[in-house]
Amino acid sequence: MLRRLGAVLFSASAALAHAFSGSIVDAPFVARAMTRGAIVWDVRPASAYAAGHLPGAVSVGFVAQALLDEKSQLFLPVEAIARRLGEAGIDPAREIVVYGGGGSAYAYFAQVALEHFGARRVHVFHDGFEAWQAGKRAISASPSTRRPVVVKLRANRALLVTTNEVVDRVGNPAVQFVDARRLGEFVGEESETLHGGHIPGALHVHYAEHFVDPDTPRKLMARETTDRSGMALKDRAGLARLYARLDPRMETIVYCHTGIRASMTAAMLARLGFRNVRLYHASWLEYGNRLDPPVAR
After folding, report:
1. CB 198, CB 295: distance < 8 Å
2. Is 293 a domain residue?
3. Closest alpha carbon to 68 in 285, 270, 293, 289
4. 282 in Cβ contact with 259 (< 8 Å)
5. Are 234 and 205 in contact (CB under 8 A)?
6. If we measure between CA atoms, which residue out of 51, 18, 3 comes closest to residue 156?
7. Cα–Cα distance, 292 to 27 (Å, whole number)
8. 25 and 146: one domain?
9. Domain of 184?
């Protein structure tokens, strides 16, 4: 259902400068995309890729390490990203399917990165590698390569928002904020920055609330389970209830700690019809370490 919704939203919002335009797809869609030559990008760490991946899928290693500066957690220089994508044959002008582990926010971050740099046909296989494997579909353990391409990237800065822009918008009645972090981070009980808390007025919706079992990420971290099926998405009505307090016509800025979890939130909002969704990529890692921004707890 979400895949169909994404297709409808694409046609309705493609002209909007701030619209995320990709779609969420299932395993049969991925299989068809592969037959028509779509690029498949596995965003998991190299070790997971080596243990098994979708046939023909390419890897540049763990996406966060491949595209982000280790210290700032912001994008590497565009030339470096273009080189890495090009060497792997990942051409943003082509149709691309990205996937990770089931329910992984990193797949959505890869989508955001590609769309930020100009891609317009990016699909997220939300249920990921585990769902592909559970469907008894072919798995490959041999590295896949594509012919290298020359990639020219042009950043669409309208999709992302900077810390200065965020500070300028705090208190603006025409702007709404969504915090995708854990409740402990939101209220300031958990903090790795100078200040703990949240942007004043932000709505708190932990990114895991998109899942049929929001407790699954915690269970996985605690090694209480290895089953990722609880990270399947809620239906559209369930997703819409999470954001019923927001106005889909307003500028909506989403953030977390480094922009990874918020990438999934941005994708969900766009698919629910929010017309002007922007990702605060620097997120609380930068906001919480500055002296000037207002902080609520």
Report:
1. yes
2. no
3. 285
4. yes
5. no
6. 18
7. 47
8. yes
9. 160-287
Residues in the chain: 297
Put the strands of the sheet holding 203-204 in their side by side order: 203-204, 175-179, 251-255, 276-279
What gap in Å lies between CA 182 and CA 167, rounded to an integer? 22
* Amino acid letter for position 102: G
Note the pTM of the prediction, 2 decimals: 0.92
Q: Amino acid identity, residue 106?
A: Y
Alpha helices in the chain (DSSP H): 2-13, 27-35, 46-51, 63-67, 78-87, 105-116, 128-134, 163-169, 183-187, 216-221, 236-242, 260-271, 283-287
State both tokens at 55.
Answer: 């046939």
The phi-psi region of residue 83 (left if phi > 0; otherwise alpha if psi is between -120 and 50; otherwise beta) is alpha
In a domain, 51, yes or no: yes
Contact 106, 128 (CB under 8 A): no
Pair (166, 241) in one structural domain: yes
One-letter amino acid for residue 139 of the chain:
I
CATH of the domain at 32: 3.40.250.10
Assess whether 216 and 140 both reside in one domain: no
CA–centroid distance for 274 within its chain: 16
Say whether both 115 and 7 belong to one domain.
Answer: yes
**Separation of CA 296 from chain center:** 26
- C-alpha–C-alpha distance, residues 13 and 65, integer Å: 31
DSSP letter at 210?
G
In tens digits, what is the pLDDT along the chain, a chain of 297 residues?
A: 333 333 333 333 333 444 566 799 999 999 999 999 999 999 999 999 999 999 999 999 999 999 999 999 999 999 999 999 999 999 999 999 999 999 999 999 999 999 999 998 999 999 999 999 999 999 999 999 999 999 999 888 889 999 999 999 999 999 999 999 999 999 999 999 999 999 999 999 999 999 999 999 999 999 999 999 999 999 999 999 999 999 999 999 999 999 999 999 999 999 999 999 999 999 999 999 999 999 999
